[in-house]
Each structure stands twice: as C-alpha cells, then as structure tokens.
Write a structure and sequence with these properties.
Layout: E1 2-7, H1 11-23, E2 29-32, H2 42-45, E3 49-50, H3 61-79, E4 84-85, E5 89-93, H4 96-111, E6 118-121, H5 122-128, E7 137-141, E8 145-147, H6 149-162, E9 166-168, E10 173-178, E11 183-187, E12 190-199, H7 205-209, E13 218-230, E14 241-244, E15 256-259, E16 265-268, E17 272-273, H8 287-295, H9 297-318, H10 320-328, E18 339-352, E19 362-365, E20 369-374, H11 383-402
Helix pairs in contact: 1-6, 1-11, 3-11, 9-10
C-alpha cells in the first residue's frame, strides 16, 4: 500500500515527489511513467530558459509560483552542482507599437517584485547584443538564465528514489479503480494500491483525469514548436537570449534566440497544431487524437479567432524562408544558410469548450485524486514551487483520509 501514487515522471511530477518527501520523509510514494525514463516529453524538449516571471499578471498563480520557483530552482542547482547560467535576456521592440507595449511588460515585472529590470536604448541593446539591429528599444532582464531541465528532473528522481520512492517505467496507466478505502492504479506490468493519486500526465492529463472523474469540459490541445540550430561559425550573432515583444492578442510568444547551457544557439519555436499529442514531426499522425481535436468545439473557436496567425505559423513550419524572415526582424544578419533543422517540442495547452486557452496553472481536486490539468510555461522554472503547492494539498487529503 502506497500513500501517494504520482502518474507522470516529468519535471512537475518529480518535483511533487521531491517536495512530498521533503515535507514528510516517511511517505510511501510510487511514480508511474509510460516512457522508458523521466522527462521524455515537455520537460526534455523545451529550450532550457530559467524564466524571470516578467510576463505574468501580478498576483496570478503563474507569477507567484515563478517567483518562488525561480529561487528554489537556483538553490537546488547550486546545491547539486547542476550547470546553469544567469546570463540575462533582452526583450526587443522592433517598431513603435511594440515599443509602447514594453511599458506594460516593465510594469508587470515591477509588480511581480523584480529588481534590476529596465528599459534600455537601442545603443545599450547593441552593447549587449551587437547583432540585434532590428530593435529600436528593449527591456533588460538580468534574472533570466539557462539550464538543462532534463538534468534537473533526473536529479529529482535520483533523490526521491534514494529516499525510498518506487518508480515504474514503461507502465502506461489504463485504469484507476476507486474502492472504499483505497485506489488501485492499473498500468502495464504494475498495479499500485494507494491512498491518493496525483495526476501529472502532461499531454495526457485530461485523459488520465477522466479515469477517475466525469469530464470537466477541458481538453488538451497539442501544439508543436519547431526549432532551427544556428551553425557554429555563425553563433557569434547571438550572445545570450534575444526575445521579441509578445503580441497580447496571440497566445504564443513568437520566435526567439536562446543560448543553450550544453552549447549551441536555438532559434524558434513557431507554434503549429500537432496531428497527435506527441507529434514531434510533421509526419507524426494519430487519427483518433486528431479527430478528437478537430471535433472539440473549443478548438474550432480558436481556429475562427486566430486563423490568420495560425496560417502564418503554418507558413513558418513549411517554408524555411518565412521562418528566417521572422528571425530577421530581431537579427537582420541571419541567413537561411546559417540555420540547420533542430528539434521540436509539443506544448500541452488546456482549452475549454468556449475556446479559451487556459492561461494559468489548472488543478482539479477531488477527495482522493489531484489532477494537474494545465502546467504551461514557466512550469519547469516553477517546478519546485508547484510541487510544494501540490504536496501541501496532498498532505491535507491524506490527513482527512487517515482520520
């Protein structure tokens, strides 16, 4: 009998296990993951940016968790000698409309307790990023940095296993049986009898949630983000992190440049609908999953609202020249021959039936199941803070269940 079974060994699930054992070391914890190892999907395919929290509405759960998670992540990385670099980033305005939007971003940053952030002139921008000549002004964010999140997640796993947690891999969850005094999580090759279940299944979190409760009108939509790599001889064009000014009317950030902690420069990502939930290539296709997406009323409403932006993203996906043009708004010296195809990630975007993309962390709580059904960026940066919150909720339920 386990006290808690966590479904999903991504960074949020593993951070939750870490925080549970930090709060109560005698807990018996089971982790069940359908892949052969940890951090195989969203965690292992992101760009590795340590987010500062400058974009998020003050007082929201994303802003609060990013602020605390940022501090906890840096402490953890330093304690365990995980390579990272607080290199700072520039958020670049390329026209007067974007320049005006920088004020709102700066105000949010100050409201979120950030210090050291400031507007900088084009001249100072070029001192920091000499080839970002497409910019007319920028915000300097000294708190931003880079890390390798799969390494972080693997360290979480090492620690919780050393503290007695059990991890089962290549074990896809098929069923959650709700019994009078316990739950039974039925997966490939394993059945876990447990008092409490925490669902951190990422791209399949809505599917796992439906195993224990009626549908809640939320569906995960998979959006693929594709990257190019800058050739080594042209990496001098980017020193650290060059970001665009976000479009407030579009839910994706836009292509940018990221120096990687393991070496190299990534350019991207775009944002296109994936034809399966784990569709990392344009050729990846799953008929049932695609039909579920197309049939969902929320998705159809998103298409009607963002079809122009969606076509532009598709163009960037299929035509390298269009991708390059977007990058050139920030760094005009970039040429198509400077870029080689890179990796891709798939973002789990929770959407309701009315077409609203959920722009915050979304946790559904039942008596014996906690479902994390939306953990958008900056979830990796905030993983220890999110895990701390979930662990607190879990301990309250365990006390009630045992009493």
């Amino acid at each position: 009998m386990y006290d808690i079974t966590i479904i999903g060994a991504g960074i949020v699930g593993l951070a939750t296990a870490y925080q549970l054992l930090a709060q109560q070391p005698d807990l018996k914890i089971c982790i069940i993951e359908k892949e052969a190892g940890p951090a195989q999907h969203q965690t292992g395919h992101n760009s590795g940016v340590i987010h500062s929290g400058i974009y998020y509405p003050p007082g929201g759960t994303r802003a609060l968790h990013c602020q605390r998670g940022y501090r906890l992540l840096l402490e953890f990385a330093q304690m365990h000698d995980i390579p990272h670099d607080i290199c700072g980033k520039v958020i670049v305005a390329t026209n007067e409309a974007e320049n005006a939007r920088l004020d709102t971003i700066l105000e949010r940053g100050f409201a979120n307790g950030m210090t050291g952030i400031r507007r900088i002139s084009r001249e100072e921008l070029l001192e920091k990023e000499p080839h970002a000549t497409g910019g007319i002004a920028a915000i300097w964010v000294p708190q931003a940095g880079i890390i390798h999140y799969r390494t972080v997640a693997e360290k979480y796993l090492d620690i919780v296993q050393s503290q007695g947690a059990t991890a089962h891999f290549q074990a896809k969850v098929q069923q959650i049986k709700i019994q009078e005094r316990e739950l039974v999580v039925v997966a490939d090759k394993v059945e876990a009898i447990t008092r409490l279940v925490i669902n951190c299944a990422g791209l399949y979190s809505d599917k796992v949630a439906a195993l224990s409760a009626p549908p809640r009108g939320i569906q995960i939509l998979p959006f693929r983000g594709e990257y190019y790599n800058l050739k080594p001889e042209r990496q001098y064009l980017v020193r650290n992190l060059i970001y665009p000014t976000p479009n407030p009317n579009f839910p994706f950030l836009g292509v940018h440049f990221t120096r990687m902690i393991q070496g190299g420069i990534e350019a991207g990502p775009n944002a296109v609908l994936a034809f399966r939930r784990e569709g990392y290539h344009r050729s990846d296709f799953h008929a049932q999953e695609l039909l579920e997406t197309l049939a969902f009323s929320g998705f159809r409403r998103i298409v009607r609202k963002y079809w122009r932006d969606g076509l532009a993203e598709l163009k960037r996906s299929y035509f390298k020249s269009a991708f390059v043009q977007s990058l050139q708004t920030l760094v005009p010296d970039i040429r198509a021959e400077d870029l080689t195809p890179g990796g891709a990630g798939v973002r789990a975007m929770a959407c309701d039936a009315t077409g609203n993309l959920i722009d915050d962390f979304l946790i559904f709580e039942d008596d014996r199941v906690i479902n994390v059904c939306n953990a958008p960026s900056p979830a990796a940066t905030a993983s220890l803070a999110i895990g701390e919150t979930i662990a607190g909720k879990a301990r309250i339920r365990l006390r009630r269940f045992k009493s």
